[in-house]
Amino acid sequence: MLFREFSPVGGVTSRLMIADGQGRLIDLLTLARPATVDNMEGVAALPHADGSIRFYLISDDNFAANQRTLLLAYDWRPPKGNKP
């Protein structure tokens, strides 16, 4: 699940929550400044044979000067004993 928030003081924050088949939280990736972050609007997941998952996050500039179009990729491995 991809969540996003904005505050005038803190700016943009995105959170990628990874859950198992029953909806229980397995892991959480929080993206905030100074990391590259924007108004993330989409997420896709590509599983790999080694059990890791590559997550793609995408944003659109919406024709706004203060936003960017970005495609970010993050590789994730399940913590020991957990499977998504």
Textual characterization of the structure:
There is one protein chain. By secondary structure, the protein is mainly beta. It has one domain (about 1-75). It is about 0% helix and about 50% strand. The protein has no helices and six strands. The protein has strands spanning about 1-5, 10-20, 25-30, 40-45, 55-60, 70-75. The strands form two sheets. The protein has a three-stranded antiparallel beta sheet with strand order 1-2-3, with no helix packed on it. A three-stranded antiparallel beta sheet has the order 4-5-6, with no helix packed on it. Strand 4 (about 40-45) and strand 5 (about 55-60) form a beta hairpin. It is elongated and about 45 Å long. The two termini are about 10 Å apart.
Summarize the structure.
The protein has 84 residues and is mainly β.
